[in-house]
C-alpha cells in the first residue's frame, strides 16, 4: 500500500505499542461478530475499549471480503458530520449533491465489510442513525462500536470491557506465573520504555502487584504509573498511590469506584509534572485530533518562558501524557481523550480557555492562508497532506468563530482558504456547509473575504449539481465585489459566474466571464486564480465544440504550473490533454502525458483523476492492439472508481468512444479472456494498478502481499540489513520490542520471505520497488 492511499485491506492503524492480554475478550468479540451485526464495547475512559476494538477488528480482517474500516469520531464535534467522516474513512469522493449518508449506504449496500466506529459517546444519536441505516440497507455490513455509552438500537449486543486481571499481592504465584496476569505484564512492558532493562524481580513484584491492584487493573492509569519509573522505584510509586488512595477512601466503605481511581491517577500524574509541564498539558488540550510542534509553539502564550516547547513536549511524551505518532516524515503528538478532557477542565478553572481557543483559531487561520498562498507551488502536496492531518483542528477553529458573531470575518477567511483542500479531497458537502454557515453571519459591509467565500460556495454548489444555489451565491459575489472594489475581486466574481454558467448550460456567458477573469488575473499576477479560471474556460470551450481552444487552455495551465511545481491542476490538464491527443492517434505523446498525470495523482491521492488516466491509457493500449493490457487497465479503472464511490466510470463527452474501445478489446480477446483480464485489473487495488500502468511491475506480480512497505517498515528493514536484533531495533526507534517484532513479521509476510537474511539481501539489492525473489518460501 502506497503512503497516503487506501486499499482493499482497509485502514486500520498499526499498533504503536504492544497489545497485552485480552485474548478471551478478543475471541468473544469475534464470535459475537459472526452472529450479530452490531456489537458495542462500553466501559469507562481508560479501560482500553479502542485498543480492544482495533485488535478484534484486525484479527477479523479475513472474514470480510471488503475488509475492515475505522471511523475515528472522538475528535468530531458536530453530529451533522458523522456521515461525512464515515465517507472520508471509506475513501469516498463527493461528486453530486447527494447526502453523505446516502453515499455511504449505496457504497456499502453490496459489500462485505466491518466498520469500527470509535469514540461515539458524544454523538450517540447521530451514530445510532448511521448504524441503523447501514444495518437496514446493507446486509453484508457488520459494525463494531467503542463508546462509553451504548447506541440503544434494535439488534445491538453490548459488551462491557473489564479491567485487566490483577493477582492478589498476598498470594503471588511463582515468577513464571506472573505473565498470565495482564495488568502485571502491561506494567512491566511499559516500564521497559521508561527504564530500559527493567524486569520483575522478587524485590519489586509485590509492589508492582499492589500498584496494579490499587489502579483497579485499568490500562491507562497503569501506563501512567509505569512511566514514573524514570524517577521513582516501584515501591516509591506504590507509597505515593497509597497515600492518595487513603484520601479518597476516608469516610467511604470499601474501594472507590473505578472512575475515581482513574481520576486519582490522572491527578497524581498532573501533580508530579513540573509547572511548565502542567501549563503545557493544559494548553495542548485545545488541539483536536493531535498537533505538530510548530502548532504547539504557535498556540503557546506570547512569552513561553525559559523552557523550549520541544523540551516540555518531550518530557510529556516520556511521562506518557502525550502520544508520539509518525505520519510519514512528520511527527505528531496527541493527548488521549481522557487526558485532553482533564486539560480542558484545568483551562476552564483557570479562566484561560477562551484565550487559548482564540490563539488556536488565530494559528490555524494563518496556517490555511499560508496553504492557499503557496498552493501553486512545490509545497502543494505537503499542504494537502497537512490540511488532511489538521481537519479536526480546522473544524474546531471554525466552530469557535461561528460561536461569536464578532468572529464571522475569521470564519469567512478560514472557509475560503480551505476551499482548495475540500476540492482536492472531494469533500464538497462539508465544505459547502461550513461556507454556508460562515456566509450566514451578517457583516456590516462586504469584504474581500466574503467575496472569496461566495466564489468558493458557488463553485462547490454547481459541482454538486445545485445550479440554483450556485447562481444565487455568484450573484451575491458580484454585488459584494462591486462594493469592495478592485479588479481582483471583480474578476473573482466573474470567474464564479463563469463556472455557474457552465453548469447552467449558458456556454457563451461562461466563456465571456472566464475570458475576462483570465485576462485580469494575468495582469494582477495571481497564478492560482488564473489557473482555476483557465480550467473553467477549457471546460466551457470543449463543451462548445472548440476543442483546439480548450486544449490551448490546458497547455497554458501546464506552462504556468511547470516552473512552479504545482500538481493538482496540472494532473487534471495532463489527463485531459492525454485523452484528446490519444484520440488523434498520437499514442506516444498521449502515453507520456497520461503517465505524468498518473504519477501526480498517485502523489496527490486523487483516485478519480487516477481512474480517468487508467481508462485513457487503456484506450492507448487498445489503439496499439495490446488488448490484454487494455482490458487489465479498464478493470483497474472501474475498480478504482468504484472504491471512490462511483458506480460506473463515465468520462464526460467520451461515452461513445469509451464503449467502442471496450468493444474492440472484447472482440480481439474473446469474451472469456477479456473478462479474465478485466478481473485481474479489478484485483490490483489502487497502488498496484498505478504501478502496473507505469510498468513498474507485471500484473502477475501485483498483489497485496507485495505492496510497498510503509515508511516505518522500510526503516525496520534497513536496520535488519544492518544486523540489528529486534531488541536493538526497538531501542533505536524508541518502540516496544513486541512492536519491532510485529514490524519484522509484517515485512516477511509482505515480501514472501522466511528469514531476516532475505530481507537484508533485498535491501542491499535496492529492490524496494520490485517484487522480491520468492525462491525460498516460508517453511
From TrEMBL:
<dbReference type="Pfam" id="PF25872">
    <property type="entry name" value="HTH_77"/>
</dbReference>
<dbReference type="GO" id="GO:0003677">
    <property type="term" value="F:DNA binding"/>
</dbReference>
<dbReference type="InterPro" id="IPR000792">
    <property type="entry name" value="Tscrpt_reg_LuxR_C"/>
</dbReference>
<dbReference type="InterPro" id="IPR011990">
    <property type="entry name" value="TPR-like_helical_dom_sf"/>
</dbReference>
<feature type="domain" description="HTH luxR-type">
    <location>
        <begin position="702"/>
        <end position="767"/>
    </location>
</feature>
<dbReference type="InterPro" id="IPR058852">
    <property type="entry name" value="HTH_77"/>
</dbReference>
<dbReference type="InterPro" id="IPR036388">
    <property type="entry name" value="WH-like_DNA-bd_sf"/>
</dbReference>
<dbReference type="InterPro" id="IPR016032">
    <property type="entry name" value="Sig_transdc_resp-reg_C-effctor"/>
</dbReference>
<dbReference type="GO" id="GO:0006355">
    <property type="term" value="P:regulation of DNA-templated transcription"/>
</dbReference>
<dbReference type="InterPro" id="IPR027417">
    <property type="entry name" value="P-loop_NTPase"/>
</dbReference>
<protein>
    <submittedName>
        <fullName>LuxR family transcriptional regulator</fullName>
    </submittedName>
</protein>
<dbReference type="Pfam" id="PF00196">
    <property type="entry name" value="GerE"/>
</dbReference>
